[in-house]
Amino acid sequence: MPRIPLPRTRGSRLAAVAAVVLVAAAAATVWATRDRGPAPVRTQDAFVSMPAGPGSPDQVRIDTTTYYPEHTPAPAVLLAHGFGGDKSSVDPQARELAQRGFVVLAWSARGFGRSTGKIGLNDPDGEVADARRLVDRLAASHDVATGSDGAPEIGVTGASYGGSLSLLLAGTDHRVRALAPVITYNDLGQALVPNAAAATAPSAKTPAAGAFSPDGVFKKSWAGIFFSAGSGAAAASTPSTEAPEAGQPTSDTGGTAGNSGGTAPQAAAPSAAARAERPSADPCGRFTAAVCKAYEELATTGKASPETVALLHRVSPSSVTGKITAPTLLVQGESDTLFGLDQSDATARQITAAGGSVRTIWYTGGHDGGVPGPQLRAKIGDFLWSSLTGQGDPGHGFSYDVQGTLRANGTPSVRTVNAAAYPGLAGAGTERKQVALTGPAQPIVRPAGANPAAVSGIPGLNGLASGTSRLAPLFSSDPPGQAAQFGTAPFDSQLVLSGSSTVRLQVATDPAHPQPEAVLFAKLYDVGQDGTRVLPANTVAPFRVTGLPADGMPVDVTVTLPGVVRPIDSGHSLRLVVGTTDQAYSVPTQPAVFRVGLAPGAALAVPVVPGASVGAPLPVGQLIGIGATLLVAIAVVVIAAIRRRRAHDVDPELAGTPLVIKGLRKQYAGGFTAVADLSFRVEPGQVLGLLGPNGAGKTTTLRMLMGLITPTAGEIRVFGHRITPGAPVLSRIGSFVEGSGFLPHLSGKANLELYWAATGRPAEKAHFTEALEIAGLGDAVHRRVKTYSQGMRQRLAIAQAMLGLPELMVLDEPTNGLDPPQIHQMREVLQRYAATGRTVVVSSHLLAEVEQTCSHVVVMHRGRLVASGEVGELAASSGEATFRVGDPAAAAATLKSVGGVSDVETEGDLVHANLDGLPRADAVAALVRAGVAVEQAGPRRRLEDAFLQLVGEDS
After folding, report:
1. Which terminus, N or C, of the chain has the lesser number of Cβ atoms within 10 Å?
2. How far apart are CA 75 and CA 70, in angstroms?
3. Across 437-516, where does the E strand assignment appear?
4. 643: pLDDT confidence band, cut at 50, 70 and 90?
């Protein structure tokens, strides 16, 4: 048995013993507080027949499942699903609520799953009427508890489409005694056709009040996703398999609920049952004729007629919120470009005005950012239980999550801020800080066809970019010439933006080509000290300004920006961007020019909601276990601190050195080591080739250099700064490591300008002319990229890496896919760039190119450094020599007769030979004795031979 080494010093032994004791204590605590398993849940499926509509003899069949807790009677909850889903979508959350003690009734709404009928978007005579009849069933059930007044204890919850149903049901059925709508809308017309402009500032005192002005801009991307989810499902026929009648249990399980719950925004494909039924040729699919007509109008014209406005209002919770008095918990997502914080804000004001009690929670998810996690779902369950039974704590006040900009292991930090109440519902309104904006009035162009269009985000995927500047350019960009920009001074302390900011603008048309109205888009960027910018939650405020005077006189409007929660760190600033296009919205296609400026004395009014910051609550058992684990971690940290010191982030002695790699190691799960103990440095002005066979670890090294992956050990320093993910010094590096992506319909120059604009740095710092001159694209830079050859694309990628003339440029296999002439051109590009005095690191497996392009080389093999130095020195180390002689044939014969000499070959008047350790002078002497005239003798500088000696022929 191998001997386990023990600490040698008494202090180290005591620390180790303490750590072992703490680990044992933590394990015992976790075992003692472990989950004993969920309570059993009994389910019952049934189809329920409903009238198709008022006065209609037809029936629709609604597929339901009732979940029964271990003990009944119990309070009941109707659980509605999201759009595109069905009752199976909310099965995990239904089981979770049943295990808490609720009777839960879930169902597939009309047109979804195995339920028949047409989708009416929660029509009061359709889906809402169905829900009232389901309340009838619960009220008549002996399994549902009643309160002291004899009324059944019934609540309702759901997310998105289901959240709207919750509000509409509570506003039309007084038997609903509590409701918890999640990430839903107040006014579907304002959610899908928003207008953020108003003649005067909003009168509401709440933090996220929207303008809710008429004649808005159609949100075509999100609307198209939802219409597709409904129109792709065929009209359902009678199910082939009947569900059991009421009272016949179908399962008895203790399965736990998953995290997706019923709060997931169901904007995805329909259920398997729905997909199995093939769609008909009707483009309206399962939608009612009225809904289909409204969508076709919006999709083709971009505007809503009075009839469409009336329809959207009829199916919106805003039509009934003035009648809701039941206790209400509003849960809204901070990462939601579909239903923003303004929707929840309006609902809170309307229910409060009706005399209802409202509690509001903003959390970091949403349609773009994810569903509520276990802790938030527990708060929803606690609220419903307390509101229905009078037992427990329903929670109080207003809370919102603040997601930090710093990340630990890829996960952003989140803290919760608790305020006594939602500001503006009663008493004093929201505090708004007036922040000065600067910038002149600017002309902005709407191109013909509104193309290319600005990018504010990608519906459903915006959460990927949240809080990080690395991905932000992929999700938000503003084409040059299409946007006016106004900025604030850097903040001297952190400001937590909590809601909807407002600003007063002036908009005018171009008198030479007057337009009666302008469709514009306002965004508020968080700009870092290095110039990088992030669009919080990828939100944009579309607004329409009508009645523009033809003589170019400006019109004053107040624009309400989207509600967000964003910590603006010290040293950061805010940048207001007002553009003419956005790919997510319907934009007029005729070309136009507008002039946008700040109204006199205008300032950015930023909402701030003070409160107490707290961490997320955890169960007591978990707290004890985590506490013990923390003690273990502290002990480990103390022991580690004795053995080593933390490295400084900046080494002043290396401030002038482009790159230093020391003891670098990258080991993956399973023990595979890609890079092991790698150390080398690159000096200013060098062109260093990182050489090695496939699998040597070159790309892994470059990915660590760019902060894309984290080393297991060792460090990388660039100009003295230690490289970590997102390190500011990365802005001094130009790179071509992950491959490049260009928009094929744009010219090369437009692609470069768009890329640079996305970084948020000033255009004058791009050095477009110098980069393009070095790349050598000539007039081709004005052609569309789709016409480029592979070599031209590679050179454009190099030009992109050169923008800003970075002091260090890192390129991974830049000649891949190029033919010999293109490789020659690429070599010239790199040599011209190095001639400017900057430093280049090139990874390649093409030995000849490294030999001709690079001044220095680092050779890697199986993750390790095997050689480094000047290219000439390394090539000369192969042991081969070259002789220029008068009689090559005689010289070759003479050398072959010398013992140990091998691989003799002639090339014109040159003779090459491997001397195998024989001194070159001895070889020359042998040639002279044989009567061969030797004009020149020296090493044969061939990098290939040295490389093969270092890594082996089999590589």
Report:
1. N
2. 13
3. 442-446, 483-487, 495-499, 502-509
4. very low
3-state secondary structure 173-186: CCCEEEEEEECCCC
Q: Same CATH fold, 431-611 and 41-396?
A: no
Which amino acid, one-letter code, is at 441? A
Note the pLDDT of residue 878.
55
The two three-digit tokens of residue 587, written as one number:
């934009």
Dihedral sign for Cα atoms in the order 304, 309, 315, 317: positive
Tokens describing residue 139:
């009220």
pLDDT given for residue 92 in this prediction: 95
Pairwise pLDDT comparison (18 vs 285), residue with the higher score: 285
Pairing of the two strands 687-691 and 839-844:
parallel
8 Å CB contact between 609 and 479: no
Superfamily of domain 41-396: Alpha/Beta hydrolase fold, catalytic domain (3.40.50.1820)
Residue 524 has pLDDT above 70, yes or no: yes
Which residue type is seen at 180?
A
Name the band, by pLDDT with cuts 50, 70 and 90, for residue 625.
Answer: low
Q: Alpha carbon of 745 to those of 477, 751, 795: distances in Å?
A: 16, 9, 18
Token pair for 517: 């109205």
* DSSP strand pairing (880-885 vs 910-914): antiparallel
CATH of segment(s) 431-611: 2.60.120.260
Q: Are 733 and 703 a contacting pair, CB within 8 Å?
A: no
Q: Which of 130-134, 727-731, 845-849 tops mean pLDDT?
A: 130-134
pTM: 0.62
DSSP strand pairing (517-527 vs 573-579)? antiparallel
CATH of 879-939, one of 3.90.226.10, 3.30.70.100, 3.90.1640.10, 3.50.50.60: 3.30.70.100
Strands (E), 117-232: 154-159, 176-182, 197-198
Nearest to 317 by CA among 341, 281, 295, 343: 343
In contact, 894 and 883? CB cutoff 8 Å: no
Given a cut of 50, is residue 708 above it in pLDDT? yes
**Residue 345, H or E segment:** helix 341-353
Report the sign of the C-alpha dihedral through residues 106, 109, 111, 112, in that order: negative
Residue spans of the domains in the chain: they are 41-396, 431-611, 652-873, 879-939
Provide DSSP, 260-303. STT-S---SPPPHHHHHSPP-S-TTTTB-HHHHHHHHHHHHHSS
Contact indicator for 315, 192 with CB cutoff of 8 Å: no
Coil vs helix vs strand at 927? helix
Ranking 92-106, 263-277, 800-814 by mean pLDDT, the lowest is 263-277
Q: What's the order of all strands across the beta sheet hosting 659-667? A: 673-682, 659-667, 713-718, 721-722
Strand partners for 864? 861
Q: pLDDT digit string (tens) for 905-947?
A: 888 888 888 877 678 788 888 888 888 888 887 766 556 666 6
- Taking residue 445's Cβ as centre, other Cβ atoms within 10 Å add up to 18
- 174-206 b/e (C-beta count within 10 Å ≥ 16 → b): ebbbbbbbbbbbbbbbbbbbbbbbbeeebebbb
Helix, strand, coil % (nearest 5) of the chain?
A: 30, 25, 40
CATH homologous superfamily of 652-873 equals P-loop containing nucleotide triphosphate hydrolases (3.40.50.300)
Quick one: pLDDT band at residue 836, thresholds 50, 70, 90? confident
CA–CA distance, 178 with 900 (Å, rounded to integer): 95
d(CA 270, CA 266): 9
